Amino acid sequence: MDFAELDAIEGLRWSWNSWPVSRTQSNDLVIPLSVMQTPLMNFNDLPLLPYDPLICRRCASVLNPYARVDYPSRIWICPFCYQKNSFPRSYAEIGENNIPAELFPTYSTVEYQLNHQALSLNNISSPTFNTSSFNNSSFNNSGFSYGKGLGKSGSCSSFSSVSSVDQRVGGRGMGMGMGMGGGPVFVFVVDGCSSEEEIRALKNELLLIVAQLPENVMVGLVVFDSVVRVYDLGFSDCLRVFVFHGERDLSSTQIIDLLGIHSAKQQLGKTQGAQKHGFILPVSECEFNITTAIEDIHHSSPLIPGHRPPRCTGVAIQVAIALLEGYSVHTGSRIMIFTSGPATMGPGKVVSQDLNTSIRTHRDINSGHAPFYWKSCEFYKQLSEKLTDSSMVLDLFACSLDQIGVTEMRVAVEKSGGFIMMAESFESDQFRKCLRHIFSRDHEGFLNMCFDVTIEIITTKDVKICGAIGPCVSLHRKNASVSEKEVGEGGTNTWKLGTLTDKTCITFFFQVNEEQKPHPGTAFFIQFITKYRHGNMGIRKRVTSAARRWVSGGAPEIAAGFDQETAAAVMARLAVHETRNNFPREVVRWLDKELIRFASKFGDYIPEDPSSFRLSSNFSLYPQFMYHLRRSQFIDVFNSSPDETAFFQVMLNREGVVGSLVMIQPTLFQYSFDGPPVPVLLDVCSLSPDVILLFDSYFYVVVHYGSKIAQWKKLGYDRDPNHESFRKLLEAAEVEAEQVVSQRIPVPKLVRCDQHSSQARFLLAKLNPSATHKSSFVDGSEVIMTDDVSLQVFIEHLQELAVQG
User: Fold this and answer.
1) In this structure, what are the phi and psi dihedrals at residue 508, rounded to the nearest 5 degrees?
2) Can you tell me whether residue 776 is helix, strand or coil?
3) What is the model's pLDDT at position 374?
4) Most buried one in 250, 312, 644, 670, CB count within 10 A?
5) Are strands 523-533 and 451-459 parallel, antiparallel or unpaired?
6) What are the two backbone dihedrals, phi and then psi, of residue 646, each rounded to the nearest 5 degrees?
7) pLDDT per residue as tens digits for the range 187-202
8) Cis peptide before 184 (omega within 30 of 0)
9) Residue 745 burial by CB count (10 A; 0-12/13-18/19+): exposed, middle or buried?
10) Cα separation of 276 and 263, whole Å?
């Protein structure tokens, strides 16, 4: 079974593709029944249907290919609750040879464009559905009208014409859905305590972004140091700002009153009133003013020797949130923080201004010696509730050599679905590429982002929903399919996200509903309904329907349907979730315990005989993944700051299976004169003086030159025409490294190093220490100075414990 191919069709990766019929049997599997979903995955042939979906009257599921249809009676039977539903009049011409896209067997995922009345406002003819576009001879060419229902249409065109509708509707980002309100809102919150060089680089990027924004996008600007300055972008005579003290903890109501936003709303009395106020305006109305305001940002007053800059990050975020609340913006907004240091005053304070006091470490937090940590976390937890209630997204761009407080701000950023980027400087390519990627546009000219997302799950009655782990929050909507057991964000069948990308992945957990007693061989269904606001501000609903089968506890289908890559990613998320309440050593102990149970359950062995232990190919890689997970930066926080750990864990919780595996067990490719690049073991034995290694750990990409290769480079052999093959060898590794870096967001750090140099530590720290200073090794061979056990020793211990039963 090719799980990657199924993922390309459904956008789903299942830890188990066949489920046992009882809860006891499912608990014995060790790995939870779970699905990793990428809600907005890019599909090659995703039908975009500009009409509302048909909803089951009882369970609210959407019409899908698994529904049974009685064409003569125009009735469809819901596969989830068996409710009979009538087709509306617009489906009058439905028949076995004339079916809409949502019933076509190959479309497990379809997308609906809701509130499509915007089409008629632009006098666009309704495109029609042509069954011949499916290249299936069993269907005739009679079409369905997409606009005013599904009746017969005189002219037929393929459904691909739907994708061109948006292009004909609007221009320069003013497309479909604009009749329902303005564009998305961005509030830039800039740290004025940064150095002049950093501020200059940041201003250049912000000016570039503002110049390229669609005209309907609305913007605001907040600058902070010891005070918070809110720029009035509607005042043309001069730069006018409203100033808030950095120590005051004001409520949103107080901030709104002080800014006078409420009075503007009362006078206008319209939903569009927010666009006329001066603090947040469309780019088309304030481009000159916001450009002038950005250019006016400068470094704050000189520092007091021996002190950190007075920085009130928490108050600045409070003001930005209140600003959006005052406008009643609930359709899509992002607060983007650009900072280069920790908050040293006001709510959300991370560290004192005195440089004699060092910023908190993992040990300080665990021992209770971080005086501001818990209070600051509670402050940002409260802000996260405001953010999610109003569908706001908090993005954090932290460019500093020191910590800035990512750990404290993590909950607000992650729960709102925001983006975290950590770099050393605003002048770095990492920052520029990340910011430009976020504001990239799609092929229709709209911002390539979405807002105000909800994900709802519908299941058959024999499946219970336990929860989700990812950048989402529970909406606490319970029904009969919600389990009493909660995993992550549980107690609901609906979750909210501030935003999503086409890479964002959520892990959902399920369990068997024993009350229904499913029978082996029967199918169960799960439907994922993702509703979101597109970059053109039109509302869309993507529906993914999937089916799997129940099997008896010992059936071979269980082993055949085990996806060990997905299982490793799921366990990594669970382990990260456990670190919030347990020390890393306890989490490692829990992982070991679960791995021993897993090996004992699925291994083939003679009791008490470790040498007889074997794992089939479907399970053989899983212990290796767990070995690397135990040593990863997600669990082993040694040599990582709390901010780095928070960043790593947030990224793991939103990455798909492939990206998660690269984080857990990095890839290593060898470039040599012997042939094309080949993958090699992530082991110290792969180090050699005459090869180039390309190492990818997701956050770092390392080009490691062997000692001989490095020496030849220093001698300039790559510039000698007689050594063209050497130049091509160097070039091949460089090109591949640059390609990996360019395709990933956030942009990984690219490290070029020679064997035995200090920078080689990025590679050595991840290699399996099969040869150490304590083990026997051949003179001249590479060794790693570490007390960690090797993979071979780890597997031997696992075998000994597993065969004990």
Assistant:
1) -110, 140
2) coil
3) 96
4) 312
5) antiparallel
6) -60, -45
7) 999 999 999 999 999 9
8) no
9) middle
10) 12
